[in-house]
Amino acid sequence: MRLGVAMPAALAALAGGIMAWYSHAAGVTSNAFGWVLVAALLIVAWQPRRGIWLLMGLWVFAGVQQEWTSRLPTGLSGEDIAVEATVLNAQSSGDATRLMLRVDSCQGPAQRPRCSVINKVRVTAYSDEAFYPGEQWRMTLRLRPPSGFANPGTFDYEQWLWREGIHATGYLRQDPPPVRLASAGPSLRQLGVSFLARQALNERTKRWLAALTLGDSEQLTQDDWSLLNATGTTHLVVISGLHVGLVTSFVLMLAKLGARLTTPTNWRMRAWPWWVAAVACISYATLAGMAPPAMRAMVMTLIGLWVLSGRHAPSPWQGWWLAIALVLLVDPLALWRPGMWLSFLAVAWLITIWQGRRRPQGVKGWCWALVRSQLLLAPLMAAAVLVAFGRIAPAAPLINLVAVPWVSSIMVPTALLGWLLSPVPFLGHALWWLFEAALNIFHLLLSLSVQHWPLWEPDRPLTYPLAFALLLLSPCWGLPAVLPGMRLAATALVVALPWWSLSSMTPQQGLRVSVHDVGQGQLIELRSEHYRLLYDTGPRFRGGFMPLETLWSPGQRFDQVIVSHADNDHAGGVNALLAEHQVTQWIAPAGETLPIASRACQRGQTWQRDGVNYRFLWPPAGANALSPNDRSCVLEVSVGEHRLLITGDVSTEIERRFLLEVDSPVSMLVAGHHGSGTSSGIQFVRHTAPEHVVFSAGRDNPFQHPVDAVVRRFRDQESCLWSTALDGALRFWLEAARPFEVKTTRPRAGRRNRC
């Protein structure tokens, strides 16, 4: 490829990925792709240069389309599939092991779609078997198409599964038991992980060493990731340009020293040091598992070596465009990885602010260059993170100003030198002890910053204006020909926007209700101007994961939390609330076994906050012999003419006991027991006549909630039906004299016409 076509090649690759996304959304068939391919071949024969660009775009297009067609067919969802698979990754989590598998062969049920389209799956094994990367197993899996919870402003797990090339998720069946077909072959990375496990280091040091040097970031715990996210330092942990660049630079320095000793008269003209550095770059990225960040860093570092070598090398901008083209050709799904755009954006800005400037001289010069680069990068990266993730770490610029040199100059070098000198008795350990001390200081810095400057999630209307102001701040201070007045104005705008937003914000009227998507469980947030209430806490899965952990950053405050009853799908998130948030008062039925001191919910209790009326309709006061489901706290909330009714898991018999106390019609009903046939009896449905009904149920749940009979009852009343399994999280307002409107996270076609 000639250098003059670097930008057109990158644009062609970008266009191919975007067209693939659009064609999938528009439902374009594979026949149309065939005709486009024929046209491309004709153009190649007619005008080879333009044809090559077109073929590059088609390559990316085909790679993206291949991922869409490799998803598990819906006809195999919930079915047992026998597979022979190779373990790519195994991570222990509580009493479970999370496996990443490459499917070598599979056999699904007869009269079902073929399972041969799936190649990579992520499953959970509740088994005593030990799994190691590289092993081959025969096992039976129960799979479902890739999916995730859909809640506003949270991590999009389903999108992550797609861009990681994972075609199905599920769990390992115990009957028949899995059979190991072949042991793991020799793997340098796995040997390194095993070697680390045997060292006399604390657990935090081991997992950070594995993440920083071997690219095994799955060793990090949820607490580690929460701390990194809250301080804007996640980029320092994954194998990225920082780590690959350090290894490459170190090898290049040693190779140049060797060239100077062997050929002192013309060592500057030797090309082999650059080749040795390139081999070290590729080797280290391979050792780190060639994950997308490591692969992207490898490509960019190799092109950086080419640019710096000065031998028929491209300009920095040509190298930048060429890196984009190569990354997309190797990994078409990188187009949807936020990390790719953050890294390329950072490199582009560094090229802009340093192009035409003299190289720094001396220690003082390099220190000032590092400080200047970090300060000029901070607002740009903050704007990008704000747009991509809807949050910002206020202290990130100051933290990174210290953390970047600390990690790059102390932690990573001591970690890598520890590996290099590990065969030497005591010396390797001494370096890792230095790493451990540096890690403790780094961890303390992050913890203190989170306590004083917690992660900030601005309101949606403020997100894009603030991102634009931050984006404007970077060129104002980074470009030389900007008037000082513009720089001060941009800085004042960034400072004033959050203050103006908070001061001009009108007091919240009425009640905002959010029925969160937590799978097969229930979690409802009710929030007014000065009051915040949770009804239920969602489930806790067998592997220990609690969906509540993904909804808010740590340190939230709740005035009251009502736990309708102690079943896991309603009370599973209690431990997460206790660990990371503040709850003023807990409320639960008398007699429930929960790890909290709670006040009992009782029939007839009422209270009012911010003009919103709350009333318990069930259970009766005192001890009772009811089942846990039937003593659920039943809550009625009213604002003006609007009413919300939440019935927990009570049965049809209990519904009849408080039926006459319900003021009808009901604006929104959260259907009892997730839409089970044991709740939502005919009398109850007819009396309440709900305008809207929400089923808080999981996608493809084994109970088939909501059941057909219950759905028909509500449809006979002409209720508008919603389900968190299909619509994601639901949000609506209860406000006097305001029309009732429901907003969904997953809008469904035709929904507005039916409701």
Which short descriptors sum up this protein?
24 helices; 46% helix; OB fold (Dihydrolipoamide Acetyltransferase, E2P); single chain; alpha/beta; Metallo-beta-lactamase, Chain A
Mind explaining what this structure looks like?
The chain is of the alpha/beta class and 755 residues long. Among the domains are: 12-70, no CATH class; 74-184, Beta Barrel (OB fold (Dihydrolipoamide Acetyltransferase, E2P)), CATH 2.40.50; 511-744, 4-Layer Sandwich (Metallo-beta-lactamase, Chain A). The strands form three sheets. Strands 12-11-10-9-8-7-20-21 form an eight-stranded mixed β-sheet, with helices on one face. It has a seven-stranded mixed β-sheet with strand order 13-14-15-16-17-18-19. It is globular, with a radius of gyration of 29 Å. The chain crosses the membrane at residues 35-62, 236-259, 271-290, 334-354, 375-393, 399-421, 430-450, 462-479. InterPro entries: ComA-like_MBL (IPR035681), ComEC_N (IPR004477), Competence_ComEC/Rec2 (IPR004797), Competence_DNA_uptake (IPR052159), DUF4131 (IPR025405), Metallo-B-lactamas (IPR001279), RibonucZ/Hydroxyglut_hydro (IPR036866). Residues 520-699 form the Metallo-beta-lactamase domain. It comes from Vreelandella maris.
What structural class do helix, strand and pairing data support?
A: alpha/beta
Count of DSSP strands = 21
Strand order of the largest sheet: 12-11-10-9-8-7-20-21
Residue ranges: pLDDT <50 for 5 or more in a row?
none
Strand content: 15-25%
CATH superfamily of the domain at 511-744: Ribonuclease Z/Hydroxyacylglutathione hydrolase-like
Named CATH topology of the domain at 511-744: Metallo-beta-lactamase, Chain A
| CATH architecture classification name of the domain at 511-744 | 4-Layer Sandwich
Number of helices: 24
Our measurement of the CA-to-CA distance between the termini, rounded to an integer number of angstroms, reads: 56 Å
The top-level CATH class of the domain at 511-744 is: Alpha Beta
Shape: globular
The helical percent reads: 40-55%
- Main sheet overview: 8 strands, mixed
Q: What's the rounded overall pLDDT mean?
A: 82
| Rg computed from alpha carbons, rounded to a whole number of angstroms | 29 Å
Domain Metallo-beta-lactamase: 520-699
Subcellular location: Cell membrane
Membrane topology: Multi-pass membrane protein
Protein name: DNA internalization-related competence protein ComEC/Rec2
